[in-house]
Amino acid sequence: MADIQTVLVEDDQQTRLDLRVAxxxxxxIEVASEATNGETGLVLLESIDVDVAVVDSTLPDISLAxxxxxxxxxxxxxxxxxxxxxxxxxxxxxxxxxxxxxxGADGYCPKQAPIERLAAAVRAVxxxxxxxxxxxxxESL
Length: 141
Description:
Strand order of the largest sheet: 2-1-3-4-5-6
Number of strands: 6
CATH class: Alpha Beta
Radius of gyration: 14 Å
Helix content: 25-40%
Largest sheet: 6 strands, parallel
Order of helices and strands: EHEHEHEHEHEH
Shape: globular
Number of helices: 6
CATH topology: Rossmann fold
Distance between the termini: 34 Å
Structural class: alpha/beta
Oligomer: single chain
CATH architecture: 3-Layer(aba) Sandwich
């Protein structure tokens, strides 16, 4: 079976590096590319085949809902793989979780989750399942 191809869309350089190293350490998952903001992430997702986009919930240049909508629209009109979207939520940020849930993403995982849970989330959304991490589900999503 081929590796699950992912792209990271995260503006913080250290977080992106940590995620890349951690995800690549998981069997069956590969980080195909990275973006530092939403617009660059959209360009990548329009030009390369990616199974799962792992996206920070607080992009510096575009709202999460707009990112997901644009990604789905542009991929539907291109020849690339239709990607799933896994949102990374900073658990301590006070994010409006119900609003994030309406973004249309396929899964939600805390950014601080152990790599095994993040990898499980990637695999679940890749398999077509909706994933909400138990920690986030406990915050009344």
